[in-house]
Amino acid sequence: AQRRQALLGLLYAPLVAQEILHGLKEGLAAAPMDFRLLVDDHTATEDLLLDSSTGIQPLDAAPSAQPAFDLRVVAAERRVEIAGRAFRLEAALTTAYERAVIDAAGWGPGLIGLLLTALLAATTYLLAAGRARAQALADAMTEDLRRLTLDQQAMLDADVIAIAKLRGRRIVWKNRALEQLFGYGADEMLGLPVRELYVDEDTFAALGRNAYPVLSRGGHYRSQLQMRRKDGSLVWIDLNGVALPGERDVDTTLWMMADITQSKAHEARVERAAFHDALTGLPNRVLLADRLRQAMAVAQRQSQKMAVAYLDLDGFKAINDAHGHDAGDEVLKAVAQRLSSGIRGSDTAARLGGDEFVVLLTPLPAVADSRPACERLLREILAPVRLSSGVTVQVGSSFGVAHYPLDGVDPEVLMSRADQTMFESKRAGRCRIRWLNGALPPEELDLSALRRTAEELAAEAAEADG
User: Fold this and answer.
1) pLDDT tens digits, one per residue of 45-56
2) pLDDT in tens, 238-251
3) pTM of the entire structure?
4) Residues 236, 175 share a domain
5) Residues 382, 341 share a domain
6) Is the dihedral of CA 359, 360, 365, 367 positive or negative?
Protein backbone atom coordinates (compact mmCIF):
# COMPACT_ATOMS: atom_id res chain seq x y z
CA ALA A 1 0.00 0.00 0.00
CA GLN A 2 2.84 2.41 0.81
CA ARG A 3 4.50 1.71 -2.54
CA ARG A 4 1.22 2.35 -4.32
CA GLN A 5 0.75 5.68 -2.47
CA ALA A 6 4.28 6.71 -3.44
CA LEU A 7 3.57 5.83 -7.05
CA LEU A 8 0.34 7.82 -6.96
CA GLY A 9 2.24 10.78 -5.51
CA LEU A 10 4.75 10.71 -8.36
CA LEU A 11 1.96 10.52 -10.90
CA TYR A 12 -0.34 13.16 -9.41
CA ALA A 13 2.06 15.84 -8.11
CA PRO A 14 2.59 17.59 -11.47
CA LEU A 15 -1.10 17.35 -12.29
CA VAL A 16 -2.19 18.72 -8.91
CA ALA A 17 0.22 21.64 -9.22
CA GLN A 18 -1.03 22.33 -12.73
CA GLU A 19 -4.65 22.40 -11.58
CA ILE A 20 -3.84 24.76 -8.68
CA LEU A 21 -1.88 27.12 -10.91
CA HIS A 22 -4.72 27.12 -13.44
CA GLY A 23 -7.27 27.98 -10.72
CA LEU A 24 -5.17 30.82 -9.30
CA LYS A 25 -4.40 32.39 -12.65
CA GLU A 26 -8.01 32.05 -13.74
CA GLY A 27 -9.32 33.82 -10.64
CA LEU A 28 -6.64 36.53 -10.41
CA ALA A 29 -6.20 37.29 -14.07
CA ALA A 30 -7.12 40.99 -13.59
CA ALA A 31 -5.48 41.49 -10.17
CA PRO A 32 -2.15 43.40 -9.93
CA MET A 33 -0.59 40.64 -7.83
CA ASP A 34 2.37 38.28 -7.80
CA PHE A 35 2.03 35.03 -5.86
CA ARG A 36 3.95 31.88 -5.23
CA LEU A 37 3.30 28.57 -3.44
CA LEU A 38 6.02 26.93 -1.33
CA VAL A 39 6.28 23.64 0.54
CA ASP A 40 6.28 24.61 4.22
CA ASP A 41 8.05 21.59 5.74
CA HIS A 42 9.98 23.52 8.43
CA THR A 43 13.36 22.71 6.91
CA ALA A 44 16.28 25.07 6.40
CA THR A 45 15.45 25.31 2.69
CA GLU A 46 11.96 25.78 1.30
CA ASP A 47 10.98 24.20 -1.99
CA LEU A 48 9.24 26.45 -4.47
CA LEU A 49 6.34 24.57 -6.04
CA LEU A 50 4.85 27.14 -8.41
CA ASP A 51 5.22 30.81 -9.27
CA SER A 52 2.70 33.11 -10.93
CA SER A 53 5.17 34.36 -13.52
CA THR A 54 7.09 31.20 -14.43
CA GLY A 55 4.61 28.43 -13.61
CA ILE A 56 5.40 25.06 -12.03
CA GLN A 57 8.91 24.75 -10.65
CA PRO A 58 11.09 21.71 -9.90
CA LEU A 59 10.65 20.54 -6.33
CA ASP A 60 14.21 21.57 -5.47
CA ALA A 61 13.93 25.12 -6.86
CA ALA A 62 15.17 27.68 -4.33
CA PRO A 63 12.76 30.54 -3.43
CA SER A 64 15.67 32.98 -3.78
CA ALA A 65 15.72 32.24 -7.48
CA GLN A 66 12.66 34.49 -7.80
CA PRO A 67 12.36 38.22 -6.87
CA ALA A 68 12.27 38.38 -3.06
CA PHE A 69 8.79 39.05 -1.71
CA ASP A 70 10.18 40.39 1.54
CA LEU A 71 11.49 43.44 -0.33
CA ARG A 72 8.01 44.39 -1.49
CA VAL A 73 6.32 47.29 0.19
CA VAL A 74 3.00 45.52 0.44
CA ALA A 75 3.10 41.74 0.92
CA ALA A 76 1.28 39.08 2.95
CA GLU A 77 1.29 35.34 3.41
CA ARG A 78 -1.01 32.56 4.56
CA ARG A 79 -0.39 28.92 5.46
CA VAL A 80 -2.68 26.30 3.97
CA GLU A 81 -2.88 22.53 4.09
CA ILE A 82 -3.45 20.38 1.00
CA ALA A 83 -3.88 16.62 1.32
CA GLY A 84 -2.27 16.61 4.75
CA ARG A 85 0.81 18.61 3.72
CA ALA A 86 1.59 22.22 4.70
CA PHE A 87 2.18 24.90 2.11
CA ARG A 88 2.72 28.67 2.34
CA LEU A 89 1.02 31.02 -0.08
CA GLU A 90 2.75 34.38 -0.50
CA ALA A 91 1.24 37.32 -2.37
CA ALA A 92 2.43 40.84 -3.12
CA LEU A 93 1.39 43.74 -5.26
CA THR A 94 3.38 43.87 -8.44
CA THR A 95 6.29 46.28 -8.29
CA ALA A 96 4.80 48.33 -11.09
CA TYR A 97 1.48 48.70 -9.24
CA GLU A 98 3.28 49.50 -5.98
CA ARG A 99 5.11 52.34 -7.67
CA ALA A 100 1.94 53.71 -9.21
CA VAL A 101 -0.02 53.63 -5.94
CA ILE A 102 2.76 55.11 -3.81
CA ASP A 103 3.36 57.90 -6.29
CA ALA A 104 -0.35 58.70 -6.34
CA ALA A 105 -0.97 58.59 -2.58
CA GLY A 106 1.88 58.25 -0.16
CA TRP A 107 -0.60 58.00 2.73
CA GLY A 108 -2.29 54.88 1.46
CA PRO A 109 -0.05 51.89 2.37
CA GLY A 110 -2.40 50.88 5.17
CA LEU A 111 -5.37 50.89 2.85
CA ILE A 112 -3.39 49.05 0.21
CA GLY A 113 -2.37 46.44 2.81
CA LEU A 114 -6.04 45.95 3.64
CA LEU A 115 -6.76 45.49 -0.05
CA LEU A 116 -3.92 43.01 -0.34
CA THR A 117 -5.24 41.02 2.64
CA ALA A 118 -8.61 40.80 0.93
CA LEU A 119 -6.97 39.68 -2.27
CA LEU A 120 -4.98 37.07 -0.38
CA ALA A 121 -8.17 35.74 1.18
CA ALA A 122 -9.69 35.48 -2.27
CA THR A 123 -6.54 33.78 -3.49
CA THR A 124 -6.81 31.22 -0.67
CA TYR A 125 -10.40 30.52 -1.71
CA LEU A 126 -9.31 30.04 -5.31
CA LEU A 127 -6.47 27.81 -4.14
CA ALA A 128 -9.03 25.62 -2.39
CA ALA A 129 -11.07 25.48 -5.59
CA GLY A 130 -7.96 24.43 -7.52
CA ARG A 131 -7.27 21.82 -4.87
CA ALA A 132 -10.78 20.42 -5.28
CA ARG A 133 -10.32 20.19 -9.05
CA ALA A 134 -6.97 18.47 -8.54
CA GLN A 135 -8.50 16.05 -6.02
CA ALA A 136 -11.25 15.16 -8.48
CA LEU A 137 -8.60 14.50 -11.13
CA ALA A 138 -6.61 12.40 -8.66
CA ASP A 139 -9.71 10.37 -7.77
CA ALA A 140 -10.38 9.71 -11.44
CA MET A 141 -6.78 8.62 -12.00
CA THR A 142 -6.94 6.39 -8.91
CA GLU A 143 -9.96 4.66 -10.37
CA ASP A 144 -8.16 4.28 -13.70
CA LEU A 145 -5.17 2.77 -11.89
CA ARG A 146 -7.46 0.39 -10.02
CA ARG A 147 -9.01 -0.73 -13.27
CA LEU A 148 -5.58 -1.11 -14.85
CA THR A 149 -4.53 -3.29 -11.90
CA LEU A 150 -7.59 -5.47 -12.38
CA ASP A 151 -6.87 -5.71 -16.13
CA GLN A 152 -3.28 -6.73 -15.42
CA GLN A 153 -4.42 -9.34 -12.93
CA ALA A 154 -6.89 -10.70 -15.48
CA MET A 155 -4.09 -10.94 -18.06
CA LEU A 156 -1.81 -12.72 -15.57
CA ASP A 157 -4.56 -15.24 -14.83
CA ALA A 158 -5.44 -15.77 -18.51
CA ASP A 159 -5.21 -19.32 -19.81
CA VAL A 160 -3.40 -18.40 -23.04
CA ILE A 161 0.04 -17.33 -21.74
CA ALA A 162 1.77 -19.24 -18.97
CA ILE A 163 4.00 -17.07 -16.76
CA ALA A 164 6.64 -18.10 -14.22
CA LYS A 165 8.95 -16.04 -12.02
CA LEU A 166 12.22 -17.84 -11.35
CA ARG A 167 14.91 -17.32 -8.76
CA GLY A 168 17.94 -19.56 -9.04
CA ARG A 169 16.04 -21.46 -11.78
CA ARG A 170 13.31 -22.42 -9.31
CA ILE A 171 9.70 -21.28 -9.62
CA VAL A 172 8.81 -18.70 -6.95
CA TRP A 173 5.61 -17.41 -8.59
CA LYS A 174 3.38 -18.72 -11.37
CA ASN A 175 -0.05 -18.17 -12.83
CA ARG A 176 -2.78 -20.72 -13.30
CA ALA A 177 -1.99 -21.14 -17.00
CA LEU A 178 1.47 -22.56 -16.18
CA GLU A 179 -0.07 -25.31 -14.07
CA GLN A 180 -2.57 -26.14 -16.80
CA LEU A 181 0.12 -26.16 -19.49
CA PHE A 182 2.34 -28.66 -17.66
CA GLY A 183 -0.41 -30.66 -15.94
CA TYR A 184 0.34 -29.76 -12.31
CA GLY A 185 -2.11 -29.13 -9.47
CA ALA A 186 -2.72 -25.82 -7.70
CA ASP A 187 0.52 -24.43 -6.21
CA GLU A 188 2.26 -27.75 -6.89
CA MET A 189 4.87 -25.96 -9.00
CA LEU A 190 5.98 -23.45 -6.33
CA GLY A 191 9.62 -24.17 -5.51
CA LEU A 192 9.88 -26.65 -8.40
CA PRO A 193 13.31 -26.71 -10.13
CA VAL A 194 12.65 -25.96 -13.79
CA ARG A 195 15.01 -28.80 -14.71
CA GLU A 196 11.94 -31.01 -14.17
CA LEU A 197 10.30 -29.38 -17.21
CA TYR A 198 13.15 -30.01 -19.65
CA VAL A 199 13.52 -33.09 -21.85
CA ASP A 200 17.09 -33.77 -20.75
CA GLU A 201 20.08 -32.31 -18.96
CA ASP A 202 21.76 -31.16 -22.17
CA THR A 203 18.75 -29.04 -23.19
CA PHE A 204 18.49 -27.54 -19.71
CA ALA A 205 22.20 -26.65 -19.61
CA ALA A 206 22.22 -25.29 -23.17
CA LEU A 207 19.34 -22.90 -22.50
CA GLY A 208 21.08 -21.64 -19.37
CA ARG A 209 24.31 -20.99 -21.30
CA ASN A 210 22.49 -19.21 -24.12
CA ALA A 211 19.80 -17.29 -22.25
CA TYR A 212 21.25 -15.93 -19.02
CA PRO A 213 24.13 -13.92 -20.54
CA VAL A 214 21.54 -12.17 -22.74
CA LEU A 215 19.24 -11.53 -19.78
CA SER A 216 22.07 -10.17 -17.63
CA ARG A 217 22.68 -7.48 -20.28
CA GLY A 218 19.05 -6.39 -20.09
CA GLY A 219 18.01 -8.20 -23.26
CA HIS A 220 15.13 -10.53 -24.05
CA TYR A 221 15.68 -14.19 -24.86
CA ARG A 222 13.31 -16.19 -27.03
CA SER A 223 13.44 -19.80 -28.13
CA GLN A 224 11.21 -22.64 -29.24
CA LEU A 225 11.84 -26.05 -27.72
CA GLN A 226 10.16 -29.20 -26.54
CA MET A 227 9.49 -29.46 -22.81
CA ARG A 228 8.11 -32.22 -20.61
CA ARG A 229 4.74 -32.21 -18.83
CA LYS A 230 4.19 -33.87 -15.46
CA ASP A 231 2.85 -37.04 -17.10
CA GLY A 232 5.98 -37.32 -19.27
CA SER A 233 4.36 -36.21 -22.53
CA LEU A 234 6.17 -33.64 -24.64
CA VAL A 235 4.87 -30.22 -25.59
CA TRP A 236 6.33 -27.59 -27.91
CA ILE A 237 6.85 -24.26 -26.10
CA ASP A 238 7.51 -20.74 -27.35
CA LEU A 239 9.68 -19.43 -24.50
CA ASN A 240 10.33 -15.74 -23.84
CA GLY A 241 12.42 -14.55 -20.89
CA VAL A 242 13.49 -11.24 -19.34
CA ALA A 243 15.49 -10.31 -16.24
CA LEU A 244 13.84 -8.42 -13.37
CA PRO A 245 16.47 -5.85 -12.35
CA GLY A 246 14.25 -4.35 -9.65
CA GLU A 247 14.44 -7.54 -7.59
CA ARG A 248 16.90 -8.01 -4.73
CA ASP A 249 18.31 -11.17 -6.28
CA VAL A 250 20.16 -10.61 -9.54
CA ASP A 251 19.17 -14.03 -10.90
CA THR A 252 15.42 -13.34 -10.76
CA THR A 253 13.84 -13.76 -14.18
CA LEU A 254 10.36 -13.74 -15.68
CA TRP A 255 9.39 -16.27 -18.35
CA MET A 256 6.34 -16.37 -20.59
CA MET A 257 5.38 -19.61 -22.33
CA ALA A 258 2.88 -20.47 -25.04
CA ASP A 259 1.89 -23.93 -26.23
CA ILE A 260 2.74 -24.16 -29.95
CA THR A 261 2.39 -27.93 -30.30
CA GLN A 262 -0.43 -27.67 -32.83
CA SER A 263 1.34 -25.04 -34.92
CA LYS A 264 4.52 -27.16 -34.92
CA ALA A 265 2.54 -30.18 -36.08
CA HIS A 266 1.01 -28.06 -38.85
CA GLU A 267 4.46 -26.84 -39.87
CA ALA A 268 5.68 -30.42 -40.02
CA ARG A 269 2.72 -31.41 -42.20
CA VAL A 270 3.29 -28.46 -44.53
CA GLU A 271 7.02 -29.17 -44.74
CA ARG A 272 6.41 -32.84 -45.42
CA ALA A 273 3.90 -32.01 -48.15
CA ALA A 274 6.44 -29.66 -49.73
CA PHE A 275 9.31 -32.17 -49.71
CA HIS A 276 7.68 -35.61 -49.85
CA ASP A 277 5.58 -37.56 -52.30
CA ALA A 278 1.95 -37.61 -51.20
CA LEU A 279 1.28 -41.23 -52.28
CA THR A 280 4.38 -43.07 -51.09
CA GLY A 281 5.80 -40.70 -48.45
CA LEU A 282 9.23 -40.83 -50.11
CA PRO A 283 11.28 -37.65 -50.64
CA ASN A 284 10.20 -35.84 -53.80
CA ARG A 285 12.28 -34.26 -56.55
CA VAL A 286 12.96 -31.08 -54.51
CA LEU A 287 14.28 -32.91 -51.45
CA LEU A 288 16.22 -35.34 -53.63
CA ALA A 289 18.08 -32.46 -55.30
CA ASP A 290 19.06 -31.10 -51.89
CA ARG A 291 20.16 -34.52 -50.60
CA LEU A 292 22.20 -35.08 -53.78
CA ARG A 293 24.08 -31.78 -53.37
CA GLN A 294 24.83 -32.57 -49.74
CA ALA A 295 25.96 -36.12 -50.53
CA MET A 296 28.34 -34.93 -53.26
CA ALA A 297 29.80 -32.28 -50.94
CA VAL A 298 30.41 -34.87 -48.20
CA ALA A 299 31.94 -37.33 -50.69
CA GLN A 300 34.29 -34.61 -51.95
CA ARG A 301 35.44 -33.64 -48.43
CA GLN A 302 35.98 -37.25 -47.39
CA SER A 303 37.44 -38.43 -50.73
CA GLN A 304 34.73 -41.07 -51.09
CA LYS A 305 32.38 -42.25 -53.83
CA MET A 306 28.63 -42.19 -54.18
CA ALA A 307 26.11 -43.62 -56.66
CA VAL A 308 22.88 -42.40 -58.27
CA ALA A 309 20.57 -45.26 -59.28
CA TYR A 310 17.76 -44.15 -61.62
CA LEU A 311 15.03 -46.79 -62.01
CA ASP A 312 11.79 -47.23 -63.89
CA LEU A 313 9.24 -50.01 -63.29
CA ASP A 314 8.72 -52.66 -65.95
CA GLY A 315 5.17 -53.97 -66.47
CA PHE A 316 3.52 -51.26 -64.36
CA LYS A 317 1.29 -49.93 -67.17
CA ALA A 318 -0.15 -53.40 -67.79
CA ILE A 319 -1.20 -53.63 -64.11
CA ASN A 320 -2.83 -50.20 -64.29
CA ASP A 321 -4.73 -51.14 -67.43
CA ALA A 322 -5.83 -54.54 -66.18
CA HIS A 323 -6.65 -53.81 -62.55
CA GLY A 324 -7.18 -50.04 -62.35
CA HIS A 325 -5.30 -47.09 -60.90
CA ASP A 326 -6.00 -48.10 -57.30
CA ALA A 327 -4.12 -51.31 -57.93
CA GLY A 328 -1.30 -49.29 -59.52
CA ASP A 329 -1.13 -47.10 -56.40
CA GLU A 330 -0.83 -50.22 -54.23
CA VAL A 331 2.09 -51.41 -56.35
CA LEU A 332 3.83 -48.03 -56.10
CA LYS A 333 3.45 -48.04 -52.31
CA ALA A 334 4.83 -51.60 -52.11
CA VAL A 335 7.85 -50.69 -54.24
CA ALA A 336 8.48 -47.56 -52.14
CA GLN A 337 8.36 -49.63 -48.96
CA ARG A 338 10.81 -52.17 -50.35
CA LEU A 339 13.23 -49.47 -51.47
CA SER A 340 13.11 -47.75 -48.06
CA SER A 341 13.65 -51.04 -46.22
CA GLY A 342 16.52 -52.09 -48.48
CA ILE A 343 18.82 -49.08 -48.01
CA ARG A 344 20.95 -47.69 -45.18
CA GLY A 345 20.11 -44.69 -43.04
CA SER A 346 22.60 -42.56 -44.97
CA ASP A 347 21.00 -43.47 -48.31
CA THR A 348 17.93 -41.88 -49.91
CA ALA A 349 15.08 -43.40 -51.92
CA ALA A 350 12.92 -40.82 -53.75
CA ARG A 351 9.97 -40.87 -56.14
CA LEU A 352 10.15 -38.45 -59.07
CA GLY A 353 6.63 -39.13 -60.32
CA GLY A 354 4.77 -41.86 -62.18
CA ASP A 355 6.76 -45.09 -61.86
CA GLU A 356 10.19 -43.43 -61.73
CA PHE A 357 12.38 -43.65 -58.62
CA VAL A 358 15.92 -42.62 -57.68
CA VAL A 359 18.16 -44.13 -55.00
CA LEU A 360 21.24 -42.32 -53.66
CA LEU A 361 23.87 -44.65 -52.22
CA THR A 362 26.23 -42.61 -50.05
CA PRO A 363 28.92 -42.91 -48.95
CA LEU A 364 30.65 -45.67 -50.90
CA PRO A 365 34.27 -46.62 -50.20
CA ALA A 366 34.53 -47.93 -53.79
CA VAL A 367 32.47 -47.89 -56.98
CA ALA A 368 32.03 -51.66 -56.85
CA ASP A 369 30.11 -51.32 -53.55
CA SER A 370 27.02 -50.11 -55.45
CA ARG A 371 26.62 -53.47 -57.22
CA PRO A 372 25.35 -55.69 -54.37
CA ALA A 373 23.06 -52.89 -53.14
CA CYS A 374 21.40 -52.40 -56.54
CA GLU A 375 21.03 -56.16 -57.13
CA ARG A 376 19.39 -56.59 -53.74
CA LEU A 377 16.91 -53.78 -54.50
CA LEU A 378 15.96 -55.21 -57.90
CA ARG A 379 15.35 -58.65 -56.38
CA GLU A 380 13.09 -57.03 -53.75
CA ILE A 381 11.11 -55.19 -56.46
CA LEU A 382 10.66 -58.43 -58.44
CA ALA A 383 8.97 -60.14 -55.49
CA PRO A 384 5.21 -60.58 -56.20
CA VAL A 385 2.74 -58.01 -54.79
CA ARG A 386 -0.55 -59.19 -53.28
CA LEU A 387 -3.24 -56.57 -53.97
CA SER A 388 -6.14 -55.83 -51.63
CA SER A 389 -8.44 -57.44 -54.22
CA GLY A 390 -6.65 -60.73 -53.68
CA VAL A 391 -4.88 -60.67 -57.06
CA THR A 392 -1.12 -61.22 -57.12
CA VAL A 393 0.92 -59.14 -59.58
CA GLN A 394 4.58 -58.57 -60.33
CA VAL A 395 6.63 -55.68 -61.66
CA GLY A 396 10.26 -55.51 -62.65
CA SER A 397 12.61 -52.58 -62.98
CA SER A 398 15.40 -51.26 -65.16
CA PHE A 399 18.30 -49.57 -63.36
CA GLY A 400 20.83 -47.03 -64.62
CA VAL A 401 23.65 -46.26 -62.19
CA ALA A 402 26.17 -43.39 -62.37
CA HIS A 403 28.97 -42.74 -59.87
CA TYR A 404 30.52 -39.63 -58.36
CA PRO A 405 33.13 -38.52 -59.32
CA LEU A 406 33.84 -40.99 -62.14
CA ASP A 407 30.72 -40.17 -64.18
CA GLY A 408 30.15 -36.55 -63.20
CA VAL A 409 30.88 -33.91 -60.57
CA ASP A 410 27.76 -31.81 -61.18
CA PRO A 411 24.39 -32.95 -59.73
CA GLU A 412 22.45 -32.37 -62.93
CA VAL A 413 25.06 -34.11 -65.06
CA LEU A 414 25.14 -37.11 -62.73
CA MET A 415 21.33 -37.41 -62.75
CA SER A 416 21.20 -37.07 -66.53
CA ARG A 417 23.78 -39.78 -67.07
CA ALA A 418 21.98 -42.15 -64.70
CA ASP A 419 18.67 -41.46 -66.50
CA GLN A 420 20.18 -42.13 -69.92
CA THR A 421 21.79 -45.33 -68.69
CA MET A 422 18.41 -46.52 -67.36
CA PHE A 423 16.85 -46.15 -70.83
CA GLU A 424 19.73 -48.10 -72.34
CA SER A 425 19.13 -50.84 -69.78
CA LYS A 426 15.40 -50.93 -70.62
CA ARG A 427 16.08 -51.14 -74.36
CA ALA A 428 18.48 -54.06 -73.75
CA GLY A 429 15.68 -56.25 -72.38
CA ARG A 430 14.33 -54.89 -69.02
CA CYS A 431 14.85 -56.19 -65.48
CA ARG A 432 18.47 -55.25 -65.87
CA ILE A 433 21.00 -53.10 -64.03
CA ARG A 434 23.55 -51.11 -66.02
CA TRP A 435 26.49 -49.53 -64.15
CA LEU A 436 28.63 -46.77 -65.58
CA ASN A 437 32.28 -46.88 -64.58
CA GLY A 438 33.93 -43.75 -65.90
CA ALA A 439 35.95 -44.42 -69.06
CA LEU A 440 35.60 -48.20 -68.69
CA PRO A 441 32.80 -50.09 -70.48
CA PRO A 442 29.49 -50.29 -68.56
CA GLU A 443 28.69 -53.44 -66.61
CA GLU A 444 25.29 -55.17 -66.71
CA LEU A 445 23.27 -57.63 -64.65
CA ASP A 446 20.24 -59.41 -66.18
CA LEU A 447 17.57 -60.61 -63.73
CA SER A 448 14.79 -61.05 -66.31
CA ALA A 449 14.76 -64.76 -65.53
CA LEU A 450 12.98 -63.90 -62.27
CA ARG A 451 9.91 -62.59 -64.12
CA ARG A 452 6.74 -64.70 -63.76
CA THR A 453 3.75 -65.08 -66.03
CA ALA A 454 0.29 -64.31 -64.72
CA GLU A 455 -0.47 -68.03 -64.60
CA GLU A 456 2.67 -68.74 -62.62
CA LEU A 457 1.85 -65.97 -60.15
CA ALA A 458 -1.69 -67.26 -59.69
CA ALA A 459 -0.42 -70.78 -59.13
CA GLU A 460 2.15 -69.61 -56.59
CA ALA A 461 -0.47 -67.56 -54.76
CA ALA A 462 -2.89 -70.49 -54.67
CA GLU A 463 -0.17 -72.76 -53.34
CA ALA A 464 0.73 -70.22 -50.65
CA ASP A 465 -2.93 -69.93 -49.60
CA GLY A 466 -3.43 -73.69 -49.77
Assistant:
1) 555 556 666 655
2) 999 998 876 666 68
3) 0.56
4) yes
5) yes
6) positive
